[in-house]
Amino acid sequence: MELQLVSALSSLALGGAVLVLFFCKWWQPLADTDRRVKELADAVEALLRQRAEVLGHDPAPSSDPVRAWLRRVQEAQDEMASIKARHDGGQLYVVRLLQYLFLPAGPVAGLAEQQIKAVRALSEQGAAILEALLATPQAPPPLLCEPEELEDLPAEAGPARACLNQALRFLGDCDAALGVWGAGGVGKTTVLRLVRDVCGRVARFDHVLLVAASRDCTVAKLQREVVSVLGLRDAPTEQAQAAGILGFLRDKNFLLLLDGVWERLDLERVGIPQPLGMANGKVRKVIVAARSEALCADMGCRSKIKVECLNQDDAWSLFQAHVGGDTIHSHIQIPALARQVAEECKGLPLALVTVGGAMSNKRTPEEWSDALDNLKASQPSGTPGLDKSTQALVKFCFDNLESAMVRECFLTCALWPEDHNISKDELVQSWIGLGLLPDLGDIDEAHRFGHSVIAMLLASRLLMPGDNHRYNMFPSDTHVRLHDVVRDAAIRFAPGKWLVRAGAGLREPPREEALWRGSQRVSLMHNCIEDVPGKVDGALADAQPTSLMLQCNRALPKRMLQVIQHFTKLTYLDLEDTGIQDAFPVEICCLISLEYLNLSKNRILSLPMELGYLSQLKYFYLRDNYYIQITIPPGLISRLGKLQVLEVFTASIVSVADDYVAPVIDDLESSGVRVASLGIWLDSTRDVERLARLAPGVRARALHLRKLGGARALPLLSAEHKQELGGVQESLQELVVYSSDIEELVADADVPKLEVVKFGFLTKLRVMAWSHAAASNLREVAMGACHSLTHLTWVQHLPCLETLNLSGCNGLTNLLGGTEDGGSAAEEVVVFPRLRLLALLGLPKLEAVRVEGECVFPVLRRLQTRGCPRLKKIAMRPASGQQGTVRIECDKHWWNALQWAGEDVKACFVPVV
Length: 913
Hints:
This protein is an alpha/beta fold and 913 residues long.
């Protein structure tokens, strides 16, 4: 038995060995075939990458060898696909074995081997073509015109014209980066702004990005600047943000203007596509403004422009321009004194501008003599650096401001980050909250007075016009900024002690006790504070600031709020956009001296009754709250007896809590609390009537109305309802109406302060008519999902209109109707004197901006047109000097199909496709 078992096992072993030998013999060729086919696929993939590189350097090949090579590459790709399909057709081993037995030549393996040799030969030819392309300099982007031919340049271009021309010629050469360097205040920023403003008339770029690097610049901070200019979404991490920027700019022609660079920046980490220069058929250029020539070189700038102080003649011309001819010639002795004052400015443009502004109202020789003596006395002795001399000149201008109040208002501008564009409304709101403006007894008067102070500071040239930074809008009258030299000086002039680390990329508060001890105003806004280590606790223990600005720290830790509750002297606290979620931070309720509290753009579910402990609270802002529901307990508002401003809005148009509106109005009615500025959601006309009865003690400056109980009309803007709604009509500045059944909107009431109107999801609205009294001050109009509207002819009669945003209005056929709709005759030109932004989005039936005739948009800077397939022509008459000043964001095929009335109209636009 055992012998039989051994015999059987031996037979099985022998049979297995025979099978293994048989299958090994026949399997090896099959494995070789698999290997060759994969090798072919890899070789063709590498060849296709090589083809992409060739096309990147030569997008439209004109030479026969290159075109022939590209054709053979395509043939190789097709042949590889055929071989692979034949190979993959028989994946079963038996089928492949039979093929091998009956086709001993092994056609798939043989064909793959032959094709691999052909692909390798093509790859060698491609390498030679690439080498030739790299050896041949690529043609630079052509200039549309020579820089010297530009006319109608801004006034500040005079002294900077030579540098501007050099920078513009750089746009048409082969260099990738240009350095603009010089001391602080010589005009580097001016050169960059001029390049941005006029480059559309010289060269075509998809995007021109002017971003401020500033001191302490981090990758994340520069990414935020770029994202803001491009209008992209924020990403949670630096890597994700870099990927988003890279994906957006990879196939675009762009010019990046980096202002205020203090140290080398890794643009690749930011997400800026590399390499710069001419790459893959795209133009990628960078202009760097820095104080050091070496830093420009470190940023890869082979070409550099040194911006120097002005010569005597140019300095005198710039000084005269900012003083004003009437002032200089108001007395026979002043011109000679003025020349001496100008000489004290050492040819520095910043000093000439600011000192000139300070002297613009000095009309007696005595005033000029005193100014000259003060300037000479303020200059540092010895051989000071240019920055010290500049600060002395800034101090002279600062001392010449009208009053101590204006001087303190100016100093607070330094609490914002370096090179930050500060909203005028935000600035005035902070001045009011800090108690810097006189108590005029009326919040509207206080706002007007605050804007007059801004006008004084702009006239003195200590403040400069800013930008609407998002989408890189051109300068407007809504933002201001401080030159970094002026900001540095302002922080030194501050009364008492200030701790300012705004926009410095901090991830935790400063640890040094000396910085906190005795600091009255603390600004840590626009950072990334996310931790409060134990070492910081000691530094904060004895701190007792009176104002604390923490806005735009989007992940502010709970521990920071626990520390803040011990700042019992705090009167001003800004926590806007600090990532507060769900529960209201009750630690704030310990700050019994608090007068100003801003919690906007957070995620707060309800207000606690403990908020009533803040008996000194005057200004409370909770705008754009994330949650669609927010609960305000009954009796809370009545406990805040000193409240002057209350603005509580959700960021949603869908719903608010049922117990939100009623307690607010009930408290206002029962307590007699006077609120100078009220902003809330309302659900019915009855709520509006209740508010109107509370006027003038309660003034509704901003109302968001939704649903309105099925109302077919909007009584709020009607003169017919003045008796019951006049109290609201007189004070209303912002009106938002959503999700209502309104069919007709006739605005004929006198609404003198109304500036902003927004209407959304009014799907039954067919008729809109506005009288001059209701529309004379409108600055912003937005219409969304109002499907029954066919035109908006009334907007042409808005003299102050700056922004018009239309989206998702499916029935809109013409923006401005014909004469039967009350429009102008065809031969008349319709002028929009102040319109800067026109957005036409998702308007499938829109055929024309105007049925007949032309429109003039003299200050238009941005036009959005997407989802408007029937809009084939822009009926626009160019304004003087408008060439290349309008950024139009649109689809590429739509832009290419546009019908132009003339090349002069097309030349106004810089397409972003």
